[in-house]
Design goal:
Helix content is 39%, strand content 14%. It is of the alpha/beta class and 520 residues long. It folds into four domains: 102 residues, Rhodanese-like domain (Oxidized Rhodanese, domain 1); 126 residues, Rhodanese-like domain (Oxidized Rhodanese, domain 1, 3-Layer(aba) Sandwich), CATH 3.40.250.10; 101 residues, Rhodanese-like domain (Oxidized Rhodanese, domain 1, 3-Layer(aba) Sandwich), CATH 3.40.250.10; 135 residues, Rhodanese-like domain (Oxidized Rhodanese, domain 1, 3-Layer(aba) Sandwich), CATH 3.40.250.
């Protein structure tokens, strides 16, 4: 079914469940998309859709560049069992022509939330020169990086300890000497620092708490050096008193209106067929391994808030958040409520008590695999085309001689009509999806299962490629992509973009962000 851009926008703001999916690749999405459009690129559609949109009869709205990709995606989604699929006619061109706001970047709803909360609740900031003076003067304070360990390893400010949002409030008694020592929270930009300060305030932390203004980017722009490749310390363990303190802070949020439900109630919610309900486990990987919660998606609470559109594809969905003391989940719930979702916290020791139906994704059929020598024979003697479907950056670095880089939405343009056979190289979900499309053109496909190193041992030459242009590498986000690599102008553009997000909102979009109710 084709609908207008206006009808799509009305549905997004209706207060009912809807999956608004931008099926363009990362480059186009990063350059500009509707605020609440969730990235679900056609190249990985079947692989991602079951996790993003678990209920098959929820309305699904697709938007592309008016280039026919939505029609292909509609067919694939119908094959997966989705029953209510709508296409925005003429795609993003229609959205822009209607005068609706268009947003660059990624995780925009979450970043917009950070700016709204900064405007409404005025967290305290510390600028980079002042922080540097504190460090040089050996002032007594505690300094934490709110990002997850994998981001922390890329770069950090020396002296910062990796303790992501939620974890810091949960483990505060293990890292803070008293309730008077100042605490500084940083991230790469603004959002997680702002939410980190407000989360500690909501949990009743009495210490003076500051967000580093503009995070690591503000630090670098002030002329200070970032430390790269640091290994994060393990998260500190809590003793019995620490767990009790975490539980008391969680109850403070319960009294402020965060919904806590029993495992039985959560299980009933998850079993309902008329609502989309997601189950997330906000504990650490070690905690999950010791006491698994079957069917739950593992994610740190700060990341679920920071990048909600990577985990939840249905607007106004219900979220069940599992935790032990309840504090990490309650803090996430506090912010997820402001984003327009319906979160509920389950604080329990027996995670098996939550019963969640396991999602059953409908993936493209498996494709026959061949080794390097078999693939070489198909290319050299049977005229098969060798297609590299890995990330374009990987292809640039090293690829098999004779391989052409392509991506699923470009197959029709990149593969000549006289092609009869193809050898595909890439991740299983990506190659299977591409093979499905190529089969409809009568092209027989196999997948090269060996690694590049194994192919080299078999006699295949490896080559590097010239750097791709932005227009060719459509699988990459190019929007201020070099801001963490010393590109001052990119950092300035990014921060100006982030600070300016609130001004872009139209009245309907602004109304989607609910007021944050901090405990007294």
């Amino acid at each position: 079914m084709r609908i207008s851009a206006g009808a799509a926008k009305q549905l997004v703001h209706s207060g009912t469940e809807v999956a608004f999916l931008d099926i363009r690749e990362a480059f186009a999405y990063g350059e500009g998309h509707p605020l609440f459009a969730v990235p679900c690129p056609y190249s990985r559609l079947e692989h991602r859709i079951a996790r993003l949109v678990p209920r098959l009869d929820v309305p699904v709205v697709l938007i592309d560049d008016g280039d026919g990709v939505s029609e292909r995606a509609e067919k694939r989604l119908a094959d997966c069992g989705y029953t209510d699929i709508r296409i925005v006619g003429r795609g993003m061109a229609a959205w822009r022509n209607a005068g609706f706001p268009v947003y660059a970047g990624v995780n925009v709803p979450s970043k917009t939330l950070g700016e709204i909360l900064e405007h409404d609740h005025h967290p305290d900031f510390i600028d980079a020169p002042t922080l540097a003076r504190w460090m040089d003067g050996r002032a007594h304070f505690r300094f934490f990086d709110a990002r997850p360990p994998e981001e922390f390893r890329k770069f950090r400010i020396e002296g910062a300890r990796c303790l992501p949002n939620g974890e810091l409030a949960h483990r505060l008694d293990a890292v803070a000497d008293d309730d008077t020592t100042p605490i500084v929270v940083t991230c790469a930009g603004r959002t997680r620092g702002i939410l980190g300060v407000l989360g500690l305030r909501a949990a009743g932390v009495r210490n003076p708490v500051y967000a580093l203004e503009n995070g690591t980017q503000g630090w670098a722009l002030a002329g200070f050096t970032l430390d790269r490749g640091a290994s994060p310390d393990p998260f500190p363990e809590l003793d019995a008193a620490g767990f009790d303190a975490s539980r008391r802070r969680a109850m403070r949020l319960k009294e402020a209106g965060v919904s806590f439900v029993s495992p039985e109630t959560a299980s009933r919610m998850l079993a309902e067929r008329t609502r989309t309900t997601f189950l997330f486990d906000l504990r650490t990987a070690d905690e999950q391994a010791r006491n698994p919660c079957p069917g739950a998606t593992p994610v740190l609470g700060g990341q679920l808030v920071q990048a909600t559109d990577q985990y939840v594809g249905v607007r106004h969905a219900r979220l069940i958040l599992v935790d032990d003391t309840g504090l990490r989940a309650a803090l996430a719930a506090l912010f997820l409520t402001t984003l327009g979702f319906e979160p509920h916290v389950v604080a329990l020791d027996d995670t098996e008590a939550v019963k969640a139906p396991l999602a059953k994704p409908v993936l493209p059929p498996a494709v026959q695999e061949v080794d390097a020598r078999q693939a070489m024979d198909l290319v050299r003697t049977k005229g098969a085309r060798l297609l590299d479907l890995r990330a374009s950056a990987d292809y640039e670095t090293s690829h098999l001689a004779g391989a052409a880089w392509t991506i699923r939405p470009k197959l029709d343009a990149d593969i000549p009509d006289d092609t009869q056979r193809a050898v595909l190289f890439g991740e299983p979900d990506v190659t299977a999806a591409a093979a499905l499309d190529l089969a409809e053109r009568g092209i027989e496909c196999v997948v090269l299962a060996d690694s590049p190193a194994q192919c080299k041992e078999a006699g295949w030459t490896l080559e590097a490629a010239a750097p791709f242009t932005r227009e060719r590498a459509i699988d990459r986000i190019w929007f201020t992509h070099s801001r963490h690599d010393g590109d001052r102008e990119a950092s300035l553009r990014y921060l100006a973009w982030e600070i300016g997000l609130m001004k872009q909102l139209d009245p309907q979009e602004r109304a989607e962000f609910r007021d944050l109710k901090l405990p007294a």
